[in-house]
Amino acid sequence: MLSADIIVGIIFAAIGSVIYYVKKEKKKYKLIKDFDLDGVNEVIIAPRLEQKYKEADANKINTLFRAHVKRFIKILEEKIPKNFLQNFYNNINETDIAFSLETVPKNLAGFYYAKGNVIRLSPLALASALNHELLHLASSCIMVDKNSPNHIECVGFRQGNDTFEIGRGINEGYTVHLDRKYFSLFKTESRRYNFMATIAELMEIVIGDKKMEELYFTSNLYGLHSELLNKCASSDEIFNFLNDCDFIYCFYGKDNIFIKSQKDEIEKRIQRIFKFLIRSYYFNLLLKDDKDKENKLNNFIQKIPRRKILGIRVYNVINEEVIKEAISEAKERYSHAEIISIR
């Protein structure tokens, strides 16, 4: 007779689809006009990575997940240069992956706990849920001693600990985008994750796919900030963008009376996100003197939904006025940059 764990493991390995559950936030943010995630407006410099291992050894992985992890390793090493996978090699060789009824909340398919370097999955989670958590593992490192109260978890584009956090929204979106791009090749069931993935995909176009992947897998939010500064965005605008993404991620899909009363505020932040992306992208096209810039800009804008459902409410994502403002600001900043370069 096969044990229940082995039966679940066989089912897990055999099924390629995934159900993503809406994550329960550990912090209870209030929806207020000047919401800025406790005033987080700085990021630490990119962590200096210590190389413990030069390759991944899947034979150390729980047998229930070993075949899946081996496939993940094969694809990851085909798509991502090995010199960007130092975090992955450090973590995969020392991780513990298991099913758990006790530690995984009912509304989660699973989670990666950076401080303990463990992945826990709900027995109800399907196979590619593991891809999402393995991507978090592959992009994770700890600054300072993990047992110190001052430690900082750097997971992809997220930085934080028990007292602060920034970058979760864009990080979750880009993780879903990479999963869809290289592993699962389909959209998740969660509207929130799909919406954040749309934002992250546009960000990847602004930054460049290879550069974005390098920054993600080396836990370099600081580098992402620097890249955006080069697109003529101010530091304040970049932090507004990151905090707005965190804000939308936190409240996406929640449908209580308090949030209904703040529809205008939610729409304002969504529009500010896409205005930032359009302006940054078009400025970069102007800077490169791209001959096909108008066509590329139009294709970029077409990827942005005009309206979006959050929970059971419909929100206006972007309109012609916001698009015109973003283009006008990009042109103005480019003109100013030209004047400075001439001087």
Topology:
Blueprint: H1 4-14, H2 66-79, H3 86-92, E1 96-99, E2 110-113, E3 118-121, H4 129-138, E4 140-143, E5 152-155, E6 158-160, E7 165-166, H5 168-183, H6 191-207, H7 209-217, H8 221-229, H9 235-251, H10 257-260, H11 263-287, H12 293-302, E8 307-310, E9 313-316, H13 320-342
Could you please describe the fold and organization of this structure?
The structure is a single chain. With 343 residues, this protein is of the alpha+beta class. It has one domain (4-252). Helices cover 50% and strands 10% of the residues. The protein is built from 13 helices and nine strands. The strands form three sheets. It has a four-stranded antiparallel β-sheet. A hairpin with a 4-residue loop joins strand 6 (158-160) and strand 7. Helix 3 (86-92) crosses helix 4 (129-138) and helix 9 (235-251) packs across helix 11. The longest helix is centred in the last third of the chain and has 25 residues, at 263-287. The protein is globular and about 55 Å long. 41% of the residues are buried. Mean pLDDT is 82; it is low at 2-39.
